[in-house]
Amino acid sequence: MSPSYDHHHSEGSLAAAAGLTVFAAVMLLLVGFLDLLRGISAIVHDSVYVHTPDYVYRFNVAGWGWIHLFLGIAAIMVGIGLFKVSTWARVLGIVIAGLVLLANFLFLPYYPLWSLVVIALCAFVIWGLCVVRHD
């Protein structure tokens, strides 16, 4: 006799869903704090970053700093909201992680290795939030 799974979830699948949501929340908080620090350093002392003269997406480094600062604050706020496991936080988490990923892609020439690390973290956040299905 096989157990019935008509809209019931096993304890393992619920634990995995909760674990992935917490993982995504922690990673989004980490990404938010990293972007917040990057934004502050770019605004206060932009000579830390490499200036690339022939880059297609050229933008003032202090301008990038403001973008990273605001995205970092948004990521921190949504990361905190993810601990409540609400649908709005999951959707906003995917959107914010996507925007942070895009901003770091465009910031690659200024700080390549760090941008790649943050891109990877954002990809994990998006994966963690997309894989979980809550009823």
UniProtKB/TrEMBL annotation:
This is DUF7144 domain-containing protein. Residues 21-133 form the DUF7144 domain. Signal peptide: none annotated. The chain crosses the membrane at residues 12-34, 63-83, 88-107, 113-132. Keywords: Membrane, Transmembrane, Transmembrane helix. It comes from the Bacteria. Pfam families: DUF7144. The keyword Chloroplast does not apply. It comes from Streptomyces mashuensis.
